[in-house]
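If you are new to this repository, start here. Below is one unmodified record pulled from the training split, so you can see the exact layout before writing a loader.
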Amino acid sequence: MSGIKSIFLVASLMAMGALSIDTILPALSIIKSQYNVNPRHIHWTITIVFLGLSFGQLVFGPISDSIGRKKTSLLGLGIFGLGNIISISANDYGLFLISRFFQGLGAGATVVVSRAIARDLYSGSQLARVMSLVTTIFILVPVIAPGMGQLVISVLSWEFIPILTVIFCLALALWIIAFQIETIKKLRPFNFRLILDGVGEVFKCKTSRSYTITAGLTFGVLVSYLNISQPLFQEYLLVGKYFVIYFGVLALAVGLGSFLNAKLVTKLNPKTIILFSLKFETIWAISFLLFFTIGGVFNTFTVMLFLLPNFFVFGTIFGNMNALALSPMGHIAGTASAIIGTSTTLIALPLASLIGFYFSGTLLPFIILIITVSTLSLLMIKKLN
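And here is the target side for that same chain:
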C-alpha cells in the first residue's frame, strides 16, 4: 500500500468517531426538545459515544491482532452503520443513547485499527510524523461535519444525518475491500489473556504508562470542550447561528498545529515539542484565568482569543503522546493500541462529564482543568529519560 493510500485509510478509519460526534452537534437542541431531555443530561449524547469507543478499542484491538486489520475494519464499520440505522427509528432518548453507544463501539474498532496499521507500517519519529499528517487530514471532519449537519437540518431533518453517515460507511467499506492490503505480519490467536497481558506490558513500561495517562488528561480537555461548545456559543454567547463557523475554526487550529508538528518531528524530539507546548498552554491558561477572575470582558472575541492558541497547541501534543505511548509496543501493536486508546478515553470521560454537568456559562472550571492537566502532564513527562 502506498504512503498516500495508507495515510488516507488511517485518517478515514480514525474519523468515524468524530463523524458521529461532530455532525450531530448542531442538532443537540433539537434532540433535547424532541426527547424532552434535561439540559444537564444532553451531554450524554456525546459522552456515550466515547464510552462505546473505549470498549470498542479494548475488544477489537486484540481481535485485529487475531483476524487481521482488514476484517476488523469491515466489522467495525458494520457495527457503526447499525448504530446509525437504530438511531433513525429511536422513539425515546434511552434507545437513542443505545444507538449512540453502538456507533462508538464500531468506531472503536476503526480507530484502534487505524493506529495499529500506522504502527505496522512506521516507527519512531516517522510514526509521529505520519500520525500528525493523519491528524491534519482527520481534522477536516470537525471542520466540515458540523456545517454538513447544520445544512442537513435546515434542508431536511436531523434524522438524515445518520442516513448520510451510513452511506459514507458503505463507500469506505467498498474502498477497503478493493484496496486495503493486510499490514499485520503475523496473526496471534485470540485469547482474553492477551488483553490482561497487554495491560500489564503497557503499564509496566514507564514510557507507555506516562504518555497514556497524559494523553488521557489532554483528551479530557478536548472532550470537555465538545460537551460545552454548543450551549456556550448558542445559549450564553448568543451566536448560535455561527456555531459551526467557530467550531470549524477551532478544529482547523488543531489541524494546523498537527501539520506544523509533522514538520517539527523531523528535526526535534517529540518529547521536546510536548514539553514546550504544555508550558505554553499552562501560561496561557493562567493568564486568562486572571483576566476573567478580575472582571475581564467575557464575549465571543475573548473566548476565541483564549481557545484558538490552546487548540493549536493541542495539535502539537496529542499525536506525539499517542505515538510515544505506542512506540515501545510494536510487538503487540493492536492490543497495545486498544489498551492505550481505552485508557485514554476512560481517563478523559470523568473530567469531561464533570465539566459538562456543571457548566453554567462560565469558562473558569474549563480553564482550571487546562491548568491542572498541563501541570500534571509536565511533571510526569519531565521524569522520563
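Two things worth knowing about this chain: The chain has a mean pLDDT of 84. Residues 3-183+190-382 form a domain with the Growth Hormone; Chain: A; fold (CATH 1.20.1250.20).
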